Amino acid sequence: MIEEEMAKEPAIEEHQAAENQALIAQFEQGRAPEGFHHADHVRVAFAYISEFPLLEALARFSSALRRFAQAQGKPGLYHETITWAYLFLIAERIAISTRLPSWEEFSAQNPDVLVWRGGIVEKYYTKSTLNSDLARQRFVLPDRGFLDCAILDGER
Length: 156
What we know:
Blueprint: H1 2-28, H2 38-51, H3 54-71, H4 80-95, H5 103-109, H6 121-124, H7 127-130, H8 133-137, H9 146-152
Helix pairs in contact: 1-2, 2-3, 2-4, 3-4
């Protein structure tokens, strides 16, 4: 029974890689799900992090997202700090997994990254920082400390 499960795993990983690669190819061609909401962004970012080393994923996803926003006539929507923060969070969550999770597993185990308004990024950044032109144009390090995060979680 265990041998059968182990034999299935490479096939599942190959299917997952093919799915990720297809999603990346579509996104880099400017195609995305209609509406392209926050959870869709996270799904595509997950695919990049799953398929590329972190720095390459950051560069490719950021570039494709900028082009996508431009093609939609909304270049001002791209926000570098939020984009990179989510990519770093996704990469960290994948790294602490015992194996590369599927998207379904990842999203079920990490519902906090799927929340947009009032989501996890706001635990690391003040609203004034996120609303700044600098943070929109360049990656800015988090400006909330550990204590700030603990207070937000009600751990005081």
